[in-house]
Amino acid sequence: MHGNLARMFTMSLLLTLLFLGITAPVQAADPGVGDIADRIAPVGRVQLTGQPPLEVESEAAAQEAEAAEPMAAPRPARSDYPDIGVSSRAIVWVLAQLHLFFGALVLAVPLFVLIIELVGLFTGDERYDDMAHEFMKISLTGFSITAIFGGSLALALFMLYPDFMAYMMRVFGAQWLVYAGLFFFESFFLYTYYYGWNAFRYGNLKWVHLSLGLMLNASGLTIMVLANSWATFMMAPSGVNEVGAVVGNIWEVMKGPLWNPINLHRFIANIAFGGAVVGAYAAFKFLSSSDPEKRAHYDWMGYTSNFIAILAFLPLPFAGYWLMAEIYAYSQQMGITAMGGILAWLFILQAVLIGTILLAGNFYLWAGMSRTDGSERYKWLVKFIALILVVTFLIWITPHTLMLSASEIAQLGGTHHSILGPLGIMPAKNIAVNLMLIVTFLSFQLYRRSDKVATVRWAPVGNALMVAIYVVAIANIIFLGVYYGYFTNTVYKVGSSVAQVASTLVVIISGIIIDALMFKNAKTLPSHWGRIPDRAQYALFALPIAFTWLMGLMGYVRSSVKTHWHVYTVMKDNSPDNFIPTIAYAGNMITLVTVLFLLCLLFMFWVANLSETRQVKPVAAGESA
Amino acid sequence: MKILFKTLSFSIGLTLVFSLLTYLLPQIKGEAPVEKQVDLGSLTMDDFVALGEDLFSNKGTCTLCHKPPPLGRAPDIQGEDMVALSIERLADERYRGEAKDAAGYILESMLDPSKYVVATWGKKGSNDSESPMPVIDKAPIELSSMEMDAITAYLQAKDGNEVTVALPTAEAAAEVAAAPAGGSAAAPAPAATADEAMAKYACLTCHAMDSKDTLVGPGLVDVGERLTPEEIRESILDPNAVLVEGFPPAMPADFGTKMTVNELQMIVNFLAEKKG
Lengths: 625, 276
What we know:
- The complex is a heterodimer.
- Chain A has a domain at 78-332 and 578-609.
- Helix content of chain A is 71%, strand content 1%.
- Chain A has helices spanning 2-29, 36-40, 57-68, 88-123, 126-160, 162-172, 175-195, 203-235, 250-254, 259-288, 292-313, 316-330, 332-339, 346-368, 382-396, 406-412, 420-423, 426-449, 459-486, 490-518, 535-560, 583-610; strands spanning 452-453, 523-524, 565-567, 571-572.
- In chain A, the strands form two sheets. Chain A has a two-stranded antiparallel sheet.
- In chain A, a hairpin with a 3-residue loop joins strand 3 (565-567) and strand 4.
- Chain B is mainly alpha-helical.
- Chain B folds into two domains: 45-178, no CATH class; 194-272, Orthogonal Bundle (Cytochrome Bc1 Complex, Chain D, domain 2).
- In chain B, 41% of the residues lie in helices and 0% in strands.
- Chain B has helices spanning 2-24, 45-57, 82-91, 102-111, 145-157, 170-178, 194-200, 223-226, 229-237, 255-258, 261-272.
- Residues 180-187 of chain B have low confidence and may be disordered.
């Protein structure tokens, strides 16, 4: 063995020396062209004895001056865009969206895997460790799929939008190389984290493993925020002047007004999305299995995934609110294009999708209550929560403006219905969405309490306090929405929604704190994992489908608020696709990418399970007898 | 396999439901602004007013914000007589502009919206001293002077007022046509040197650089000795803050919005080195 190694090493050394031996005369044999100045100019500071210094700096200085001159953004004409016979935008749309779906998934999974691994370490329950490992296993192929779509997207952009990409390359410069370099780090940490799972399982080595996970997440998040800076630069350019010439450094280019809001929004949304996707995997395995032990495992896995998805989802509207507020602050025109202009109708769809997510999440929690006998104490509340959810959902999807014929307008007595009209504007929707979030948290809180009995003496006071917080918060949300929404002007309307959001957050935060204190050392009632109706698992399929569609929809809105600009206000889009398509066209595209994502996911899960399968050795014909 | 079929059917079915919903909503396409051809030979004032109305709703994107209450995020100028209101505002002590009549006021409100901010409509925290409205001849809206005149004509005509804006001339049209494709004259390429920058902003029209002679403004041959770079910068950005004795406040006050950061820095550096 050692002899072979030594022989290989010697051979490699000889080959290297041989290569150097060939290349050295080749380099030396080049006699050079032109005079001596040309030949020594590249060296720059060599000077021949007795001769005056060579003037080699003038050309370099001229080049430097040329490079320093700020260049405006290109203004491509329609003919400058390559035409390949199909819509360039559609190609980029599909590739970008698939890249983003998988990117979101593979950024999110290691994040909550690390947290689950930590929980396993502190509780000493190895089931957490195994589940975290399984989450990593099923998403492993996702890294390659993300890279494949990322590479295809880059090629498509360079081919179909060459001027735009040339401009982006110029603006971001060496940042692209840093971005590419980070993939080496991410790959290193990914593979050592995944394949080292059992090798670094206990004692100090476990901390080495957790550190690898932390570094994997650090590389992934850095990749995400770098890529986010391109998108936010296109929406709200910074570090460039009014014609797009770069006047700031790379930090000024990256740190536009929308960068951090997008970073936060995507970070939280990725976790919710990742949780929902692995929940669907667990639901599928639960339904496919008849072994009670396996069903119990996948029920627990599905519950944990849903917990992650809904917990991350609850603060998401607030991150979205911050993003929209920053968009309005950057450009009121851009904000109104999204929320009150041509794209406003898409927010009706957003309401339907978020409503679907909340209804599915709540339904799963209510169905999951059948796992514990203690849930009987709270089941009477479910019908009221369901009623509030349905009513607020209907308010949320009520459109303000309707497409009406003249006779319909005459029948209505105006362009707006006397009752539905007021329900169509933002104050009513702000009330509705905040109440939906509050009752979803209530479902979650009831579920968490259903297998516990508080033993602390102050439990009745704690319960009374919790009820009081719910009542005051709900009353406050309704009062703020009605009074400031309908009886004062727009300025107060926007301001009051911040107080509404604060009320919701108070309920969530105080609920978590009160329960943590009240149920410390509580008596635990038995839970029967696997005791859940099969139909509840379909809620775990509805969640990722609605999340995927929602991401596709909101990504489309985010990109379209730029209207006919590649980079808002500095580089116009003159391509044949520079218009905002109809909602139905956008819907078809989003459905297409959702179905493609679903098929790729199936492949990813199939590959993950392939490693568990071992073919039975074929028995020869003679042996069988 | 049966489970795969059932779950896949459920998932794709739900996706199609969402897709179907998009067909129930109004199908509107948002076209990018298209340059319109105007035949100046046969253009009447009615045509010009109609052009203004079209620009107001479409390319100008005015109706995004200027809507009737409670939807509007800016005053409902289509529902108000802008000529009568303009005259009231010109007399208001809060008015900081230079317009003399309604047409001038309307045009000025497009080019420099903060000259007069209607009460309660200012930027948050600005105490109605700063308008949230974008400058209309700059990106992303980029209306030409002829287009802004058409909007002014429309705002005058819609309430039966006399239209005081002149119909566009062939020279004006040529000027618009000469503007770079896809942009307006408001977005020229940035200057690369101090000399270019000073030529671009016509500094030499009013200031002598190689003597102390007074043209319209003072000679600047020794300005680097008299003023610090910071004072030079201030005198460009806010020329009326400190006036040289005996000189009227004639220097344009909008260089701060026109110059790029680089251009301003190059001019300041150049002048700071002029020490007689």
